[in-house]
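Hey, I'm writing a tutorial for new members on how sequence and structure tokens pair up, and I'd like a real worked example in the thread rather than a made-up one. If someone can provide the structure for the chain below, I'll link this post from the tutorial.
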Amino acid sequence: MKKATVFMMAAALAAGLTGCSGFSDESTATTTAGAGTTKAAESGESTTGGTEKGVIYGIYKAGDQTWFIDEGAAAQAAVEEQGDEFIYVDAKMNPEEYLKAIDNAIANKAKGIVTCIPDQTMSQAVVDKCKEAGIPIVAADDALQTDAGDKIAPWVGINAYVIGEANGQWLADYANENNLAEDPECGLLIMTMDTVSSCVPRAEGEYDKFIEVSPNFAKERIYKADYDGTTEKGNVAATSVITAHPEIKRWLITGANEEGTIGAVRALESAGLDKDACVVGLGGYLAKDEWNNKGAEGTSMKAAAYFSSDSVGAGSVKVLYDVIAGKEVPLETAVDAVVVTPENYKEVMGKAAE
């Protein structure tokens, strides 16, 4: 019972745990801020950002996660291509550690900073610090923004709502083709990160497209679980919902990032419900490990929206060097995604599937 469908998406408009249904039925439109949206550059593109050599900092909120490790490696390669040094910093999801890293970059007279902030409410303070020091900063993944959600620094990331729609489409097609839409023992769980602006549209897109494509799926069998982006908290969140609903024997699950969906995979395994479950990841960088190590039939991870951490890492650096060079840059730069399955992931992901 599985379906392998590939969705290609062009970059367009970028965009507490609960165990109960309650998503809004209204579609969420994404809007473009600032000068517009462009496609992230390939890592091989060269950009001149001034003749003086210096240091570029990459400060990431969860630097021990696979996504940020890969993103940082791509950023480092792009920086070194320009002849500069790259310093990778793991903020450990700790605002104090993060601000310390920003202060260190300023003290060391960094040429520029690319960053994913752990708490977006700190955005203005961080941008002000960098502006006062004359150091350009570019956000990757999670925007530097005002309380109203307006971007206050260039941002590079994924086209969140559209990518969410692709996951919702895949799961809805799976439900329809396997006669699960009207099955009272089948439930849909969407893993959410409601405090992260870049993640909210992902879950909204998943929900909106799912109910559009599978309108007979009862909304009272749609649940959500909020977590912080880590596998551990994703596992706890999914376990809570699964435990609270023993009437659901067949779970469909997707989420806001790959770590959360892997946490759900482990929760299903612990509950003995993994054989009849279907999980769709978001990133592909952990789904490929499931398929490489267990094969298609050995995991409940059946698909994942794959988008390249290399594109975000190299793209953020390209935008940063454009700023350093005094060029006008868009406030939003979005990257493409493809839904991959055990049947096509090696072909689509290339070396990233290893």
